[in-house]
Specification:
By secondary structure, this protein is of the alpha+beta class. The protein is built from 7 helices and 12 strands.
Length: about 250
């Protein structure tokens, strides 16, 4: 039975996180990585080039980092979350993007439910606005609680391998979100469409425990074992060689 390489949780700067995600696509086998962000960060889908959607002055004053993702999609504000990324051969999952989403989302849902979070996969995309905020839209097989999105994910594919990464919201600083996107403080448009783990269960959920449970659920679903294996010195050389292209600074 093949092993899933688990790269355990650690926090890094935004450009390092995105470089590490690209790097694991170049490695063989199935790799599941967990990480956080050393400062609040905005990640923009690879085809998004405009900053007009955010309050640049607020981001600059509050040291919010900006980074481009390898994947497409809308803009994500990363702060109180457990971020995952998985890279593997396409033939070990599916040549269908949506089927691959489903194969990854199912163990995520099972892990969340084990902590008392009533999560479920959306069967179809729900388009409710033209928002630039990723978490206001729910795509097929993304994870929500009721009508509120909980996990946002995006995928990139080469000819043989794919990368999927996603944000699992542990908590939300609504004030930070609203000021970043210039949303009035008395508006409830975000709260009616987005939720977080702390709002959906009475249990205290430790993100390391959640990451371990996700690893176990994915291993069962793929009929594989898990082996924790941190980045080596060689890995860091490869990551650092990629990191520069992901740096994006406000002028």
């Amino acid at each position: 039975m093949d092993e899933i390489r688990i790269i355990p949780y650690s926090r890094y700067e935004a450009h390092v996180n995105m470089a590490a995600d690209e790097y694991i696509m170049s490695l063989p086998g199935t790799i599941l990585r967990f990480y956080g962000w050393s400062t609040p960060s905005l990640s923009f889908g690879r085809f998004r080039n405009k900053l007009s959607e955010i309050d640049e002055s607020f981001c600059r004053r509050n040291n919010i980092s900006l980074v481009k993702r390898l994947t497409g999609g809308q803009t994500v504000l990363h702060q109180h979350e457990l971020t995952y990324s998985i890279a593997s051969d396409i033939n070990l999952f599916s040549d269908s993007i949506t089927k691959t989403y489903k194969m990854i989302s199912q163990p995520l849902v099972e892990a969340l439910k084990s902590f008392g979070v009533p999560a479920a996969m959306e069967k179809q995309k729900r388009s409710r606005s033209n928002s630039n905020i990723c978490f206001k839209e729910v795509s097929s097989f993304e994870i929500a609680v009721g009508n509120k999105k909980l996990v946002g994910s995006a995928q990139f594919r080469s000819s043989k391998r794919f990368l999927q990464h996603g944000s699992i919201l542990m908590n939300i600083d609504w004030n930070l979100w609203k000021k970043t996107w210039r949303i009035p403080s008395n508006s409830s448009e975000l709260e009616t469409r987005i939720t977080h783990i702390a709002n959906e269960t009475t249990r205290q959920v430790d993100l390391i425990d959640l990451a371990d449970t996700i690893s176990q659920k994915l291993a069962v679903s793929l009929n594989k074992s898990c082996s924790e294996n941190r980045f080596s010195a060689k890995d860091w050389t490869g990551i650092n060689n990629l990191a520069g292209k992901y740096k994006w600074e406000l002028s």
